[in-house]
Design goal:
The complex is a heterodimer of chains A (490) and B (266). Chain A has 490 residues and is α/β, with parallel strands linked by helices. Chain A is built from 15 helices and 19 strands. Chain B is 42% helix and 18% strand. Classes of the chains: A alpha/beta (490), B alpha/beta (266).
Chain lengths: 490, 266
């Protein structure tokens, strides 16, 4: 028996080194049974309702409003009134102060928001706590600073607000997407009607409480919950000057079609099928971490997820081996457990979509790997999945899965990698892994994507512009460039 | 002795650096001349030529693109008398030359105005650069025939895009003349493609084309909304530009922004 193997003097030695559960308390969140729409600073009683649930166990959380045309109309009216009555006349420094307040309140209440985000959306608490909340607060903080400096952002162009912005956001980063939309819109002097995603309305509704605490004038931000019908009513409302949409490419195209000839400004942040290109001279273990973060972060419910892995042939085998071994250590389970790496799938509909595409991958001839893991019986779950032996033409290499599913393809030369990586209608993001600096820049120049992560993946910052090429949409969010969609110029 | 009989010009399309007739064999009459009336297959050929030429044009150095476009201004200046007869006169022709020179100068400056380094909260170097959108379809305005075309053509071109433009339907001769000037400049074949014909016929084909990335509706008089709806098929960037504007933001309409992250470490 070696020194290390011997039990210590009377100290309990764990039988094995698996993690004990470390659940975050959900008591920090106090939910009401029932929510209305937040219109003109008041709760508007909804005429239609639906139940929002926790995807981890299908527990009903609250009853929320299914916004009708009339609800949307009242919200747009309230936003218009707030714009005309004062918000558009308030000095930039005044708008800045409200935004700073909101940022601070989000920081102070971040634990509560993080728990609610994980509860309603299914994402691991680790992520909502360490990514969603800090970034959401940072976005308000960043754009607060711009509110009284717009003439320096756009010299000689006399920037002016547009009026009422209609904003439709997705369910993958509910509060963070709200922050990406609301912060620049308010900084530029617009008022807002925002529709959260159907399955994740709760952090947006809790955010109304923050708005009240910040004493933001009534009607500057209005929130109408509901499904796609509510979104369509917002898009079609004549009182809206601008639509900002983040979501699927299919819905985005429909919105662009709807708005044809309307003169309304539009920005779209749509789907992706990002290539993550790994060269044989990369730091392999770091690349494996990057690949895992790229596709299993937030269960792969990420528009910029690195869902296509391009491995240089010479390292294909060791890379796949390391990747599969790493997958065995991912902890799939309760989103509120602080140890959890991969949480619940956001909704039944999304789970079915993932299952359908994974079945197509098997049927088309790809080889599937899933680590042994026990999935909870209730709720919506899908194990981390890797497909090898994938051809470019397979649906799993072409279509956005929006789940924890990676397709591995190979290449030999940098030129071939570029060709294959760009062979998609999307162009949101891409990754490159190599230790060779000139090759990073060569690749970065040629990858047709709005964000290129080199030797890293899935990094976000309010000062960094984000948005797509091609069918991944147009317009940028973040940075000085993110102000532009909310302004008009002389 | 009888007077010398002049040789007449056949007015053709400009596609991939060549001057073909319309594959359809059709012509129409404009400004007293028979002008080629392009078809949907000519649009297809033009888009194909533009797509093939675009990466090379985009990868030319900005300095080089600026020089090539300045050379184009020289070529137009050399024909300024001919152009004057095909548009409203010497003033318009002169303005067109000056506009080309003005835009040529932006090629190696705009990235500094539009780009950024971003102070992200972490050990990463992060920068944003403008890049061309790709293949741009331009419906040139009816008037002014030369300056209008130059106004809509130069912004996408300076940024490194390839262009398929439909000339003024009623005044197409200046466009054909411009094609000849382009052919003798150093603009690579396929980077500019000029079609003559009916905007209402060619516009929808370009707007729905899946390999066109952006659409300038300037000359789509009365059918712009229809084209805008078709443009959604592949999420085209749609611009409705003015017939006589000159601004760096016109160039920016046909640019994407790319942000690159890299960790900082030893």
């Amino acid at each position: 028996m070696s020194e290390l193997d011997r039990p210590g003097d009377g100290l309990a030695v764990p039988a094995d080194w698996t993690y004990a559960p470390a659940p975050e308390s959900r008591d920090v969140v106090r939910l009401r049974e029932h929510y209305g729409h937040f219109v003109g600073g008041e709760w508007l009683e909804p005429t239609e309702t639906y139940e929002t649930i926790a995807p981890r166990d299908e527990e009903p959380l609250a009853v929320v409003g299914q916004g009708t045309e009339g609800d949307v109309d009242r919200a747009v009216g309230a936003a218009r009134k707030a714009y005309e009555d004062g918000w558009s006349k308030l000095a930039g420094s005044g708008r800045a102060k409200y935004l700073f307040r909101i940022a601070r309140l989000l920081q102070e209440r971040s634990r509560e928001f993080a728990v609610l985000e994980s509860l309603n959306g299914g994402k691991p608490i680790k992520e909502s706590r360490d990514v969603d909340l800090p970034l959401a607060a940072a976005h308000f903080f960043y754009y607060a600073g711009w509110a009284d400096k717009l003439e320096y952002a756009f010299p000689n162009r006399r920037p002016r607000p547009l009026g009422v912005a209609g904003q439709i956001i997705p369910w993958n980063f509910p509060l963070l997407m709200l922050a990406w939309k609301v912060a620049p819109a308010l900084a530029c002097g617009n008022t807002v009607v925002l529709k959260p995603a159907e399955t994740t309305p709760l952090t947006a509704l809790l955010f109304c409480d923050v708005l009240r605490q910040a004493e933001l004038p009534a009607g500057v931000v209005n929130i109408v919950t509901g499904d796609g019908r509510t979104g369509a009513a917002l898009v079609e409302n004549g009182g809206v000057d601008k639509i900002a949409f983040t979501g699927s490419t299919e819905v985005g195209k429909g919105i662009q079609r709807r708005l044809a000839g309307s003169g309304k400004k539009l920005t779209l942040e749509l789907g992706g099928k990002a290539a993550n290109v790994v060269f044989d001279d990369c730091a392999l273990d770091q690349a494996v971490e990057g690949i895992v973060n790229g596709i299993y972060f937030n269960q792969g419910h990420v528009c910029c997820a690195g869902s296509r892995l391009f491995a240089q042939e010479s390292i294909y085998e060791p890379l796949v081996e390391k990747l599969e071994r790493r997958l065995q250590t991912l902890r799939v389970g309760d989103p509120l457990d602080k140890n959890t790496d991969v949480g619940a799938i956001n909704s039944r509909a999304q789970l079915e979509k993932i299952e359908e595409l994974v079945a197509s991958g098997r049927a088309e001839g790809a080889q599937v790997y899933q680590p042994p893991c026990r999935l909870p019986e209730r709720g919506y779950w899908f194990p981390p999945t890797v497909f090898t032996n994938v051809a470019q033409s397979y649906r799993i290499a072409q279509e956005e899965i929006f789940g924890p599913v990676l397709s591995v393809l190979t290449f030999r030369t940098p030129a071939e990698a570029v060709e294959k990586a760009n062979n998609t209608p999307y162009g949101l993001s891409a990754g490159v892994w190599t230790e060779k600096g000139s090759r990073i820049l060569w690749m970065a120049q040629r990858l047709r994507a709005g964000v290129v992560w080199a030797n890293t993946f899935n990094r976000f910052d309010p000062s960094s512009p984000f948005g797509g090429y091609k069918e991944s949409g147009f317009g940028r969010e973040g940075g000085r460039h993110g102000l532009e969609p909310y302004l008009e110029f002389e | 002795m009888s007077e010398r009989l002049p040789v007449r010009k056949t007015y053709k399309l400009f596609v991939g650096g060549a001057f073909p007739r319309s594959e359809s064999g059709r012509t129409y009459e404009a400004e007293g001349q028979n002008v080629a009336r392009a078809s949907r297959k000519d649009v297809r050929d033009a888009v194909r030529a533009a797509r093939a030429a675009q990466p090379g044009w985009a990868q030319a150095t900005a300095y080089n693109r600026g020089q090539v476009l300045y050379r184009l201004a020289e070529m137009v200046e050399a024909r300024v008398h001919e152009f004057a007869e095909l548009c409203s006169g010497r003033d318009e022709a002169g303005q067109a030359v000056d506009r080309i020179v003005w835009y040529a100068g932006w090629a190696d400056k705009l990235p500094q105005v539009l780009g950024a380094t971003n102070p992200v909260a972490g050990p990463y170097f992060n920068f944003t650069i403008p890049e061309p959108t790709g293949v741009v379809a331009v419906l040139a305005p009816e008037e002014p025939p030369l300056l209008g075309l130059v106004t809509r053509l130069l912004p996408p071109l300076v940024g490194g895009n390839a262009v398929v433009a439909v000339a003024s339907e009623t005044h197409p001769l200046a466009a054909v003349e411009l094609a000849e000037a382009i052919a003798t400049s150093d603009v690579p074949s396929g980077v500019v493609n000029l079609l003559t014909g009916f905007a209402a016929e060619l516009g929808p084909v370009l707007a729905a084309h899946m390999d066109v990335n952006a659409l300038d509706l300037c000359g789509a008089d009365g059918f712009g909304s229809e084209l805008e709806a078709l443009a959604a098929d592949n999420v085209k960037r749609v611009v409705c530009g003015g017939a006589d504007v000159q601004s760096p933001w016109e160039i920016a309409s046909f640019l994407e922004l790319k942000t690159v992250w890299h960790p900082i470490g030893t």
